[in-house]
Amino acid sequence: MRIGIDCHTVGSGVGGNETYVVHLVRALAAIDGRNEYRLYFTRPSPVISELAARPNFTAVRLAPHTPFVRIPVSLPVELKRHPVDVLHVQYISPPFERTPIVNMVHDLAVLHMPQLFPRLQVWRQRLLLPGSVRRAARVLTPSQFCKDEIVRTFAVPPARVVVTPEGVSDHFQRVENPARDRALARYGIAPPYLLFVGNIQPRKNLRGLLDAFALLKRRERIPHRLVVVGRKAWLYAGVFAQVRELDVESDVRFISYVPDADLPALYSGADALVSPSLCEGFGLPPLEAMRCGTPALVSDRPAFPEVLGDAALMVDPTQPEDIATGILAVLHDPDLRRKLVARGGERARRYRWEDTARRTLAVFEDVSRTGR
Fold this sequence. Notes:
The protein is an alpha/beta fold. Helix content is 45%, strand content 15%. The strands form 2 sheets. A 7-stranded parallel β-sheet has the order 3-2-1-4-5-6-7, sandwiched between helices. Helix 1 crosses helix 15 (353-370).
């Protein structure tokens, strides 16, 4: 079987979509030495060389990067020259492609919460995503919540939408001193601190977290700093203005990029990970923190309850007071901390990229066999 995988997000540093395809391809390489893979990329990146290191994996450079040419022209031309049996994409697929397509749709937040996204992104998904989903031989999605939304929104048969939960890499383990402090020093961080991991964009609700954090600094005098790990994505100017307005500039540390190798140390040094997102299709940072023995406080919005169960403390993300109360509970209630750490470690071990790859490969095989 010849499998094509759209890897255009590799090297982008934009977060979830890149993380997904990198770890999926790595896991497929670990379990599948039989099928042939063609990896379509648009940016030079050492990660591409790593992903294509196995003899049955080939990297194929497409140009230009812009989706307005790459999707309708460059990718179909490449598929015409070198056909594959199955094509894996994320969200938007070539509109007239005859190759059976497996489409990973991480969530529908752009359609259901458009106020949180740039207008061009909203317009593009409204125009192109419905057809991409309906044309797909199978749609993959990371949670049952997302599957239900896809079936309801696009009126596709439930059997065509397959839940393939994401995984947590094995290198996310507790890091102890002195290695932990050496890693923290590289980023100018010292305990105690609260940690936020995610790109800076409205859906992540960093502004709600900042309001809660300022409340705790002002009212409870907590000694903690807030460490924000994530690149500027979109509609982020208000976050930095809010930091100034709340007068917490000296207490908030922004780090635009931390390589995967250093993230376990940052998780391990934090007193808590805080993820008050307004919506998530899955949500990897809480699981990564749990693998490192750090308790997680998250929003009570989908898909966190489904993915995390009772292993995280959940709060109303629209109420800074509720977020602040939750943070205080995690910081000051030792019994709660012990329960969250124990449950978190157990919950996070359920999610493995190898399992994601096996489920995805089974879908590829089914689509290749049936053609639909």
